[in-house]
Design a protein that fits this description.
By secondary structure, this protein is an alpha+beta fold. Helix content is 30%, strand content 32%. It contains five helices and seven strands. The termini are close together. It binds magnesium ion.
Length: 158
């Protein structure tokens, strides 16, 4: 049985924080604010996987009130997310994600992000798509106030 899930996340860009996207630290004057490393791409991926399995969302499994997750690498949360869906009999097959950021440029880091997601999930890198777009300067994302990410995941249940 094939299942589809979608994930969406957004984090605020602030000074004096690291910018981590898909587990890659990107040199930039601002970073994303959050309880974990605020890796908005990986959070959207987690939510898409949980959504396909109808297992709630990332906030349910990894609450930001829990000190365990303070500053944690979101790739660790992704590994735990995948374990949970596997325990329910699912297999992650494929992801397609989009990062929405006016800056910095995502392209040079895309393949490293895909490799990180691939090894965290345990599926071939060819099954993982990471795309990027801007908002042409429109709105809060265009004003570089934050970065958003969207993801669709395909899972199978045997
Ligand atoms: Mg988040």
């Amino acid at each position: 049985m094939m299942r589809i899930g979608m994930g969406y996340d957004i984090h605020r860009l602030v000074p004096e924080r690291r910018l981590v996207l898909g587990g890659v630290e990107i040199p930039f004057e601002f970073g994303l604010l959050g309880h974990s490393d605020a890796d908005v791409l990986t959070h959207a991926v987690c939510d898409a996987i949980l959504g396909a399995a109808a297992l709630g969302d990332i906030g349910l499994h990894f609450p930001d009130t829990d000190p365990t997750y303070r500053g944690i690498a979101s790739l660790v949360l992704l590994k735990q997310t995948v374990k949970r869906v596997i325990r329910e009999g699912f297999k992650v097959c494929q992801l397609d994600a989009t990062v929405v950021a006016q800056a910095p440029r995502i392209g040079p880091f895309r393949d490293e992000m895909r490799a990180n997601l691939s090894s965290a999930i345990g599926i071939p890198v060819g099954m993982i798509s990471v795309k990027a777009t801007t908002t042409e300067g429109l709105g809060y994302l265009g004003r570089r106030e934050g970065i958003a990410a969207l993801c669709i995941a395909q899972l199978e249940k045997g």
